[in-house]
Amino acid sequence: MFHSLWAQLALAMSALAGTAAFADARRMRRTNFDRVGFMPWTSISMLAITGAIISAAFALKGF
Asked: How far is residue 41's CA from residue 28's CA, in Å, rounded to a whole number?
C-alpha cells in the first residue's frame, strides 16, 4: 500500500502518537496517585506527532 519509506514512517509515528495519547489519558484517570509511572507520555506523543508531520511532508514531497 505505502511504497515510500517516509509514508511508512509517518504511519508508524501516527500509531505511536495514538498509543501515547491513550496511555496519557489512562494515566490521568488513575485512582491511586501514589503509583507514579516513569514514561513521559506527553513528550512521547508530541515528538511522535512532530515526526509524523515531518515524515508525511517528505512523503508528499516525494523524497
From this structure: 11
